[in-house]
Amino acid sequence: MRIAIASDHAAVDLKATLRDHLIELGHEVADLGPETADRVDYPDYGYLLGSVIADGTADYGVALCGSGIGISIAVNRNPACRCALVSEPLSAALAREHNNANCIAMGARLTGIDMAKACLDAFLSTEFGGGRHAGRVEKLSNPPA
Question: What is the pTM of this model?
Fold first, then answer.
């Protein structure tokens, strides 16, 4: 799979760990930055992640900031993205199974390394359930006028 990963300064270390984990699993990974813990604005990286999901450069995205909240909001500004903030493997799996999420977000200040890996593994190993969920997901991409 082609996976893009981005963070803000608060999550640079977690981003590096998850990037390496994904590479070890055999995925093609695009690290969108930042490279250092120098202060940056999470919306810039969330918008960048959203754009590579929307244009098909990456199949899935991983968004990280201190809480995961701000960067997930930024990613979700792109109508092609369904970014779910997750905190444990069940929510990560349900984000894929029920919502066909193409991005997950986590908070580096709230989620430990082992839990973040478990969330990522659950997300990537779960397929979209389709069926009754398909119409609901379609509505997420096409809100009423």
Answer: 0.96
H-run or E-run covering 53? helix 42-54
pLDDT tens per residue across span 85-98: 999 999 999 999 99
Residue 108's nearest CA partner among 68, 69, 72, 70 is 68
List the catalytic residues: 65, 98
Helix segments in 62-126, DSSP class H: 69-75, 89-99, 113-125
Cis peptide before 79 (omega within 30 of 0): no
Could you give the CA distance from residue 84 to residue 29 in angstroms, rounded to a whole number?
19
Q: Which of 140, 24, 14 is nearest to 65 (CA)?
A: 14
